[in-house]
Design brief:
12 helices; Tetracycline Repressor, domain 2; elongated; mainly alpha
């Protein structure tokens, strides 16, 4: 039931935006009672926050399975940007949700950014990236991801926009332009969904 409510909220926010979400919409979409809603969530705002956190958790954990196959921190960062950005192609409802709401908890010491922080810090340590505050580097990487998601939700977006975004982020982190381009366009393994979770619930094969 909890997953049903989360999935319904994800779809509604992707279609209408978080400000338009109401309890009535959620219970109608999930076909549950108001009492059932309040059994799991105190308010629509709490529901939306939990959807954002669950969705972002699915994404970073899935992407990291592929990211960790690489030793070069620049390749890791580029790989993560490309994989998460391609969410828009394979899970448009989930991508629409993040485009409307933004990445959760960007300002805090967010466990969801620990993966990116790990690779950025390693890149700076090895001299692969230039010296800079880690918070600035995180903003560059996540800005590239969110910008790519916004574009890739539109039919006119270039097919390689995820790669172009990754290359731009690597240049901002300090790689020479030609090196950044070569790293960002390396062959990429596909990201496989978990059998359960919000991403799987919104895949086309699941009817989401």
């Amino acid at each position: 039931m909890r997953s049903r409510l989360l999935g319904t909220a994800l779809q509604l926010v992707a279609e209408r935006g978080p400000a338009a979400l109401s309890i009535d919409d959620v219970i109608a979409g999930a076909e549950v009672s108001r009492g059932t809603f309040y059994k799991y969530f105190l308010s629509p705002e709490v529901l939306v926050r939990e959807v954002a956190f669950g969705l972002a958790t699915d994404l970073v954990q899935l992407a990291d399975l592929v990211v960790r196959l690489r030793d070069d921190p620049a390749e890791r960062v580029a790989c993560g940007i490309r994989l998460v950005s391609r969410l828009a192609l394979h899970h448009p409802a989930a991508a629409g949700f993040l485009a409307q709401l933004g990445w959760p908890d960007m300002e805090g010491d967010d466990v969801l950014l620990a993966y990116v922080r790990r690779d950025v810090q390693e890149g700076i340590k090895r001299g692969r990236f230039r010296e800079m505050p880690v918070s600035l580097a995180l903003n560059m990487v996540m800005g590239a991801v969110m910008g790519a998601i916004h574009c890739m939700l539109r039919p006119a977006c270039a097919a390689d926009f995820a790669e172009m975004s990754a290359a731009a982020a690597l240049r901002a982190l300090g790689l020479p332009a030609r090196t950044a381009e070569a790293v960002a366009f390396k062959p990429l393994e596909p990201m496989t969904d978990f059998p359960e979770g919000l991403l799987s619930a919104t895949s086309p094969s699941a009817g989401g």
